[in-house]
Amino acid sequence: KYFLACYDITEFARQKNILYQGRGAAANSAVCYVLGITAVDPEKIDLLFARFISKERNEPPDIDIDFEHERREEVIRYIYNKYGREFTALVSEVITYRHRSALRDTAKAFGFSVDTTNRLTSLLHSWTGYQITSQQLEELGLNKDSLALKHVFEISNQLLGFPRHLSQHSSGFIISKYPLSRIVPIGKSAMPGRTIIEWDKNDIEELAILKIDILALGMLTCIRKALTAINTERTKKGKKPLSLYSIPPEDPKVYDMICAADTIGVFQIESRAQMSMLPRLKPRSFYDLVIEVAIVRPGPIQGKMVHPYLKRRNSSEKVSYPDKNVEQILGKTLGVPIFQEQAMKLAIILAGFSPGEAEKLRRAMAAWKRNSDAIAAFEKRIISGMLSKGYSAEFAKSCVNQIKGFSEYGFPESHAASFALLVYISAWIKCYYPAEFAMALLNSQPMGFYAPSQIIQDAKRHGVKVLPVDINYSFWDSSIENSTGSKALRLGFRMVSGINKKDIIRLIKIRALFKFFESITELSREFAELGYELPRDTLIRLARADAFRSMGLNARKALWKIKALPKTFLPLDSYWKNRPELFSPPLESSYSLMLKDYQSTGLSLRAHPLEFLRAKLKKRGILSKKELLLINPENSRAPFFTAGIVICRQKPPTAKGVMFITLEDETGSVNLIVAPDVFKRYQRIIMSTDMIIAGGMLQKNGPLVYLNVFELRELDLAALT
Fold this sequence. Notes:
The protein is an alpha/beta fold. The protein has five domains: about 150 residues, glyoxalase-related enzyme like fold (2-Layer Sandwich), CATH 3.30.1900; about 60 residues, no CATH class; about 90 residues, no CATH class; about 140 residues, no CATH class; about 110 residues, CATH 2.40.50.140. It has 32 helices and 16 strands. The chain has a seven-stranded mixed sheet. A five-stranded mixed beta barrel has the order 12-13-14-16-15. α4 crosses α7. The protein is globular, with a radius of gyration of 29 Å. The mean pLDDT is about 85.
């Protein structure tokens, strides 16, 4: 019944053309594969059924299903309609106090104003260890010796980890054979027609109540939108439409693109860390992608598994195994344990664990930092079991340490395989249909690492022609145009900041009746004649986004026309349709227009901000990414300087305090490596500045450029221009 319930939900999604993907432990189940719940064949990833279900667990298996993030609501409504609120509900989640919420509630209780409390909490960040300095307090006008303030900090620290309130779980659904009111305490959700139970997922797991995770994944939305656009074109050409599972596999051109770290927007391998790994790992097959997804994780990094694997893959270190049993388990990963399933198999084959006991070991691995006693017993059992089978104490201890390295970040092979499938599909679309891929990314926002500006810059580097938002050609979503004989990406109205979607949808419907608006006056009058009003605020936002170019109006002229619109249209107003201009506003500079583009849409098709500064930056010896790429760092130990817009800041917990910053200029992106002492010295600039000049020692990894930073300065755009 459990499998059929999951099948029923995925079958509904299939009928409604909603993309989905079963993942996690479900990929270890042949039944899930046959029913179409997962697309990953468990035989191809070396099935370990105990990871999915076992006798010792005595509980239902855990099936996670991802759906398009914009259409998951349809699936949720279906489940409620199918089973009724009496038998199905969402699981709750206990929200505990974290640094900001604890400080906010404590400051409120001590009578601090909302403004002061907001400014205090804005200073808290994991990058700085949630510490607030005396200097920062003084800058806020607060007395660091205040007794009330000391009490606020002391009590807020004591509150950390305490339950704050009960919330709705993001994905957990329970379906019951009996009315829920007989089993669990229930309550109404904030959304009408919803029921939640007052137990969290840990309670459900302990009581072995059936749970299905209905998750949302933005990349599925992106892939569906891209395939819809691609298939529209293919159908016109008489070609067979593509589906999620008919994408041509193992394409060398796709792997060439991946190995070059040309993966902005590609699922799971677009982060700085993944892009750094790609030229070193050089994936050339689907299973390579499975490893790529899993290896750039805290578990393998903490277990010191990454470098040994890369050395063996690049033939700079010999691959050896203590015996054939170990080779059978670790052969696919060159003797280095990377996946949870491998840790379980090591325990089963080398230490005599049953499959169920191995699953208990996996769960203990996830909690060993919180409960060291739980894994201590397993540690003794593993070492004694391996010693009894003739393995050395050193090898047994190294296996235990690697298992510990997984901590709570251990990654299952089945999960990685499910994700790797989406990695390949999204990379294939980017490789062969870059315009459709960029369009789908823009229309699926917010998702991924990159803002629309970076997505568009990347699309242009791939030869995609990008057209601006326009009153006569744009739709709400970005779209593909073929009117001029060549394919182009037309930006949608959704790119305009603060625009009202209902107004735009109405505008598009009215435009369909008249085909083309020749003037702002005509546009407004047609709205009025149909009994609607196009708000001035909407027109002004469109003008600031320079969306009236097809009418022959720049932003200033459009704003001037909008200001001159009458409050109500009179019968003879149309007579003045072609009256001569009495005044023409002065032209703006390209720099000014670029700034206004960023203010209204967050991007500019005219130019990158750094283009206006390049001549002055060059005089100061500040190089672009393109120029840095031409330099061989081995031939010069001199420091180099670069500048750009900050598009990403990361400080992974496994990086020992090192921060990574990505800068973008008009030619590409440069990765900054900021050591802890440099971060401390330039903390204010790093935390608050959007444009930075960085100096450091140059490093290169294929097409990727790094600066090991020793100096940072704020890039003052206004001063340089």
